[in-house]
Amino acid sequence: MLRILILLVIGIGAGILLRGSACVKATKWSIQLTVCLLLFVFGISIGSNHDLIDNLYRFGWQALVIACLGVAGSIVAARAAQRIFFKKGGKS
Questions:
Q1: How far is residue 89's CA from residue 70's CA, in Å, rounded to a whole number?
Q2: How far apart are CA 66 and CA 77, in angstroms?
Q3: Rounded CA gap, 56 and 64, in Å?
Q4: CA distance 92 to 87
Q5: pLDDT in tens, 20-64
């Protein structure tokens, strides 16, 4: 965990130093590519797990409930933040 935090701090420092350069602008497409690749590898690992696939019905509804509640909670939190931080006509 400490290694991840150190890499995050180093990345923030590099981003500050390289702000506005072509290297930072190239990260937009590389981030999207990395996320797609991670999702693909995650799908391969799920598909190769026989126990998970055999019990997909049992795990699937629990995952669906958790995902729906997570999305609903995010929507509520975003609405609350919008009302608190972006009031129209009032002082900020």
A1: 32
A2: 16
A3: 11
A4: 7
A5: 777 777 777 888 899 999 999 999 998 899 888 888 788 788 889
